UniProtKB/TrEMBL annotation:
It holds the Pfam family RF-1. Keywords: Transit peptide. PANTHER family: MITOCHONDRIAL TRANSLATION RELEASE FACTOR IN RESCUE, PROBABLE PEPTIDE CHAIN RELEASE FACTOR C12ORF65. This is Peptide chain release factor-like protein. It comes from Candidatus Desantisbacteria bacterium CG_4_10_14_0_8_um_filter_39_17. The keyword Hydrolase does not apply. Residues 29-124 form the Prokaryotic-type class I peptide chain release factors domain.
Amino acid sequence: MLLKNNTHMNFNELFDVSPAKVATLRERIERLKIDISDIEEQFIRGGGKGGQKINKTANCVRLSYPPLGIQVRMQKDRKRSINRFLALRELVDKIEMRISPRTSKWLKEIEKARHRKSAHRRRTLLKYGHN
């Protein structure tokens, strides 16, 4: 159920996270040249675990970035402000993957995990032989 119409994101509102994390996110947004006013924000009722608090409050956040057609929905925490921050961070990750995949932190982590798995497989084959 939608409780608030689409509004443009206001980065000046406070987040319940450390100022260092907010500053890091702000730097990434500026580096990627993302116009914060292009991000549409909706607050909707969440679901799942959490009982009455989750069912009564609009703590689930949906952010969309129409220029690239990207949407993110976040409800990891009971606090709306934390969900707002987490959704914005995930949206910036997705935008970065689309705009500059070579510098994307997310893609680098995936590549690192892929390399780690292949190295583990190689070591296992050397130790135990081919099955």
